């Protein structure tokens, strides 16, 4: 039975990438997207926020990919792969004729270099922990080896990856931006500037980056998927306040206001049939949360962290964003496999929270800082959280900063508390493991990592690895139960205060074509640039 399932899945993955649009795509034109903040980087080993996610995916490719608008895996730079009987060795057969934007042919050595680079501690990649299942990871991640011993290139068209344990998420990892293939000579020539001068194999290439103004991406005429992309180019304009961007979209000057519909305008937009017709709504694998740095006082005490959970009035905060979310009880969102349906979470109870603070030795409260991204509605959400904390004696000064600065502080461990909004976790793929490793696991609690709570529970890491070693589909329920137990243990330790699970609303101009799913694409946020087109 196991071999039948594997061979069936393999046959599907060996198919040539194809995507059927509901309307016949038209070629040409330029699309304009706006953002308030500039883009931090386009280096796939470094970039890890929703703003640059889709741009990186259009500039680079990985061994695996997803069907546009879905989380269904399909082949990428590897046209096929095989898996050994013990579930430990993947052999990827690369597509031939794939070229980097500089004209050089991509080879297996580029894949090996790219995977080694992201694990190298000198790269300070927030995605390093994703690769812990590959043989030789510990030595490579510690800087004690030149690369991953489990990644080899027996010839120019073949990559072999040996795992130290079976892992149910591995093919998803090969579709993440951290696995995207980069050319060694360009990375070494550009150094720290590679993120501003990226060269990949993707559907678009960056041709202009005027800091604080715009980024321009032009069609790659040599892209390996025939007929893609449809656009000649797309432009990302930065420095645009969301309100201004919305007005420009209403005037037909902007195709997608990338920061979304400002909360102050949401009801107005949705009550106008003409504007509402341009809004695409989709569910998302998302949780917004407050992190607490568990390595420093006062958040090194679990009673304090639990008190914060009990102090936050989640229902009131949902109203701040016009009801576009549901209160969260745990790290996983309700639509994620492994979500614990009968878990109520921490009740809103300020008096009980005060008692917990007193038990921890903080009867008189304390002062701290709450970092927040400066795009509306996040500062207003932070103010609501600030008021709730004040009610139990915690005086949290708000530090409202650009997204990149908040992420930097979180990675460096210098932020006592962070409201994750605007940067909140949206799953890379629909598996409970993805909400753990990078943001709650020990692998993410490193310099530059995405685990801003710096929470590291080695026992839970071991249980997570055990859960992900279950690759037999017949034991899927057993695996999900293990993940449910892991997240319940996380909530006991309370490194986060989960606040809400948000729905996604995107406005697009009337001239844009393509399935609605492309504009709420779960892995190309906020839009899949490769497959949208201009109808006019």
UniProtKB/TrEMBL annotation:
Asked if Acyltransferase is a keyword of the record, the answer is no
Its subcellular locations are: Periplasm
Q: Where is the Solute-binding protein family domain?
A: 73-444
Q: Does the keyword Chaperone apply?
A: no
Q: Which UniProt keywords apply?
A: Signal, Transport
Where is this protein primarily located? Answer: periplasm
Q: Which residues form the signal peptide?
A: 1-20
Note the superkingdom of the native organism: Bacteria
CDD domains linked: PBP2_NikA_DppA_OppA_like (cd00995)
Pfam family for this entry, one:
SBP_bac_5
Similarity-based family: Belongs to the bacterial solute-binding protein 5 family.
**Protein name, please?**
ABC transporter substrate-binding protein
Q: Which organism is it from?
A: Hoeflea algicola
């Amino acid at each position: 039975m196991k071999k039948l399932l594997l061979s069936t899945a393999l046959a599907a993955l060996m198919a040539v990438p194809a995507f059927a649009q509901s309307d016949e795509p038209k070629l040409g034109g330029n699309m304009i997207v706006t953002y308030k903040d500039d883009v931090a980087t386009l280096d796939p080993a470094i970039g890890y926020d929703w703003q640059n996610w889709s741009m990186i995916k259009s500039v680079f490719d990985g061994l695996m990919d997803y069907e546009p608008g879905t989380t269904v895996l399909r082949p990428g730079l590897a046209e096929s792969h095989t898996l050994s009987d013990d579930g430990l060795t993947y052999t990827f057969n690369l597509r031939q004729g794939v070229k980097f934007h500089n004209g050089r042919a991509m080879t297996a050595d580029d894949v090996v270099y790219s995977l080694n680079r992201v694990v190298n501690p000198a790269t300070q990649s927030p995605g390093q922990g994703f690769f812990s299942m590959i043989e030789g990871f510990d030595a490579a991640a510690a800087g004690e080896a030149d690369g991953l011993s489990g990644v080899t290139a027996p010839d120019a068209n073949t990559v072999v990856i040996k795992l130290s344990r079976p892992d149910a998420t591995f093919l998803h990892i090969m579709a993440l931006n951290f696995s995207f293939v980069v050319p060694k000579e360009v990375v070494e020539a550009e150094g720290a500037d590679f993120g501003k001068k990226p060269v990949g194999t993707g559907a678009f290439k960056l041709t202009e980056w005027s800091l604080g103004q715009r980024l321009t991406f032009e069609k790659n005429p040599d892209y390996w998927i025939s007929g893609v992309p449809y656009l000649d180019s797309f432009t990302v304009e930065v420095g645009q306040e969301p309100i201004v961007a919305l007005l420009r979209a209403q005037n037909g000057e902007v195709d997608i206001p990338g920061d979304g519909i400002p909360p102050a305008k949401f009801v107005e937009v949705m009550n106008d049939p003409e504007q509402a017709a341009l809004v695409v709504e989709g569910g998302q694998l998302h949780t917004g949360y407050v992190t607490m740095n568990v390595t420093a006082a006062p958040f090194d005490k679990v009673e304090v962290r639990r008190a914060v959970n009990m102090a936050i009035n989640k229902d009131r905060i949902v109203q701040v964003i016009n009801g576009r979310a549901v209160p969260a009880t745990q790290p996983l969102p309700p639509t994620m496999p492994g979500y614990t349906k009968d878990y109520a979470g921490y009740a809103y109870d300020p008096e009980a929270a005060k008692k917990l603070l007193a038990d921890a030795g903080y009867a008189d409260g304390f002062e701290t800082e709450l970092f927040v991204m400066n795009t509306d509605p996040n500062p207003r959400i932070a103010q609501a959280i600030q008021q709730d904390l004040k009610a139990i004696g915690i005086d949290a000064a708000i530090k409202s900063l650009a997204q990149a600065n908040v992420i930097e502080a979180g990675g460096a461990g210098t932020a006592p508390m962070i409201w994750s909004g605007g940067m909140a976790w949206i799953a890379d793929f629909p598996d409970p493991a993805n909400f753990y490793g990078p943001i709650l696991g020990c692998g993410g609690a490193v310099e530059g990592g995405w685990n801003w709570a710096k929470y590291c529970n080695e026992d839970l890491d071991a249980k997570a690895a055990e859960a992900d070693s279950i690759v037999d589909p017949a034991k899927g329920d057993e695996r999900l139960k293990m993940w449910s137990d892991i997240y319940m243990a996380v909530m006991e330790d309370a490194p986060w205060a989960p606040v809400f699970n948000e729905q996604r609303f995107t406005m697009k101009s009337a001239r844009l074509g393509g399935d609605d799913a492309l504009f709420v694409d779960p892995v190309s946020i906020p839009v899949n640039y490769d497959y949208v087109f201009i109808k006019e």
